[in-house]
Amino acid sequence: MGSFFSFIETEINSKSAILTDLIGNDENGNFSTVKSMMRHEMDSGLLKKSGYVSGCRTLLRLHRGLDFIRQFLKHVYELRSDEGTSSVCMKVYSKTLGNFHPWLIRQGAYLAMYTLPSRAALLNRVNYKYILTNVYALI
């Protein structure tokens, strides 16, 4: 799909792995719900601890990444078959993830987005029948 979506995939996988590890190593139920995780990290002072990978921050970043994908798929669904996806991706990125990335990261992301294919080519690379029939369940 291109370097941009490889980056997104890597980020989602790494955030999911962090949360899975926190839950898997939790013997006291501190990470059994979002509320208990937030309470535990705040009450224990973990959010300010140097080197600690916060479950709260990780979940927030994962949510932002998934929201980007949701909005991108919604806009791709509305495109004509011959239309490119890069302009839609740039628009969605600037409204979602771009708000939280420094300038240099944003510029690299925009550059990578120029390599995105048309809607038809994108759907041909994935299981487009599944996407077309289930996209509104995802968005």
Explain what you see.
This protein is an all-alpha fold and 139 residues long. The chain has one domain (3-138): Glycolipid transfer protein (Glycolipid transfer protein, GLTP, Orthogonal Bundle). It contains seven helices and no strands. It starts with a helix and ends with a helix. The mean pLDDT is 89.
Helix content: 55-70%
Low-confidence stretches are: none
Q: Main β-sheet, in a few words?
A: none
Q: Using the 3D structure, state the CATH architecture.
A: Orthogonal Bundle
Summing up helix and strand content along with how strands pair, one would put the structural category as: mainly alpha
The coarse silhouette is elongated
**CATH homologous superfamily (4th level) name:** Glycolipid transfer protein
CATH class: Mainly Alpha
Number of domains: 1
Integer-rounded radius of gyration: 18 Å
Compact overview of the structure:
It comes from Ranatra chinensis. The protein is mainly alpha-helical and about 140 residues long. It has 7 helices and no strands.
Keyword list:
elongated, Glycolipid transfer protein, GLTP, mainly alpha, 7 helices
Write the layout of secondary structure elements.
Layout: H1 3-24, H2 34-43, H3 55-78, H4 86-95, H5 103-113, H6 119-125, H7 128-138
Helix pairs in contact: 1-3, 3-4, 3-7
